Structure prediction request, 210 residues.
Amino acid sequence: MNRDAVFLGVAGVFFGVMVGWIIGSQQAASGAPAAPAAVSASAPAGGGQAPGQQAPPPLDESRAAALKSTAAQNPRDEAPRVQLANMYFDAERYQDAAEWYQQALGINPKDINASTDLGIAYYYMNQPDRALAQFDKSLALNPRHAKTLLNVGIVRAFGKQDLRGAADAWQRALDSAPPGSDESKAAQQALEGLKAAHPELTPAGKGSSH
Prediction:
């Protein structure tokens, strides 16, 4: 699997869900996020679908054991920890994934992909504030990291019901991503869906005082 890819087909499904959620004024259910399709920086969670939409791939326990052994023997090696985190993430074992991302970041705090994926894991653990705080750490490394900004928008829309904040984040993602890139297309889709449902929401920098 190309862990850096953004799957626009799945993103399109997400934005359809997003528009329906906005138009229907549906509130996020307590105990679980409201069907986001997070755009992972390095591990797109089985293609970016929301947890529970289909059975996650089973964890390769022998592979995980081998990576844990490698990590134990190499306490300053980030790579096996990120691989373990990605495996647990794909298996939707987000608590385990978060622990391994945290270990990886303890070795290399400048790994922006691990930082953003940790934030997504927090969101799927129903901790949107913690997710946003982690995304802030990613953006401190690179304020124009488009995948992080896309996820800020998702968490603000679905985790915080902050549609203006989501619009601002997606506008920043659109401004930051290379024209024609997957990230640019995803941000444009998000903004168009949001504008169709709520035309009064003007992103910051486009006439809003927010």
In short: Residues 1-13, 19-35, 43-49, 206-210 have pLDDT under 50 and may be disordered. The two ends are 39 Å apart (CA to CA). Residues 8-197 form a domain with the Serine Threonine Protein Phosphatase 5, Tetratricopeptide repeat fold (CATH 1.25.40.10). DSSP finds ten helices and no strands in the chain.
